[in-house]
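User: Fold this; tokens only.

Assistant: Input:
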Amino acid sequence: MKKRISILVLALLLTLTMLVSGCSSVENNDAEENNTPQENTAVEENNEPKEDSPQEENATSEGEYIITAEAAIKAINEEGTVLVDAQGAEDYGKAHIDGAVNIARADITVSDDVPNVLAPEEKIIDTFSKSGISNDTMIVIYDNNNNMDSGRLWWTLMVYGHENMKVVSGGLEALKGAGLETSTEAPEVAEGEYTIDSKNEDLIATLDEVMAQVNDPKEDVVFLDTRSPEEYTAGTIPGSIHLNYIDNNNADGTYKSMDEIKSQYEEKGITPDKTIIMYCKTSIRGAQSLLALYEAGYENLKLYDGAWVEYSADTSLPVETPSEDDVKANEQDLS
């Protein structure tokens, strides 16, 4: 009898041991399943290239000429690059990115009969050479003026055949925000050897071309008035479509994405298949818009360099006065 009880006790203990051992095995299996690479997979998915996200792509997208401040920093650290500050001389003296040379609006324009028109090639050659620029120089341009003086310098270089350049979206503030230091001292530069072989007249509209469109409007040609709403409603070239140059920018002064820019012009009927003649008061703001449209894929672009100042000086020319209801006011810098 005692022997049977002992056997039963041993059997019961053996059964309990197996049950305990089985529970332990289940917990260990659960732990192994929890350690499968699911969390690591999630991390890898979160580290996929950000350009897959449309929003992120627009935020960091760059064109052929317009670049971010971060990209500009990489560019100016490369050999053969000159950083150009397009501020006025007084602003440049107060603060500019350390190492930048100054090419102001006055250095690339003349104001004889009409203010701020394209300077002749002799002045451009002298300006660029003294700034340490040669024909093979990569030029990185920034301003402190809503990208308008950068745009004007870009257009000037394009007219005279220098395409090796970039414009910093957001200008001085963007570069400072990216960590670059400012200075009040102009750098010492070795004089460059700059030459000009040709002039691209296709980027320039003359008063004769403007009058030809006014007198005999063609459906595939558009006038673009880039001035403020107040200026536009006070008088514009007949048939002009208004889109304030400042609307090419985000609130922080950087250029909008090229998709946004293209969309806002297409909404106005300004499509890439048309020739667009743009102007402002003296075509500084107009050049900013020309750069924006060029980057957005528009090809047939002309800047009316004489601009509203030249056109309105002849009181015999027709002027259209749009309704104030047609435009929306937007604070911006005048040129």
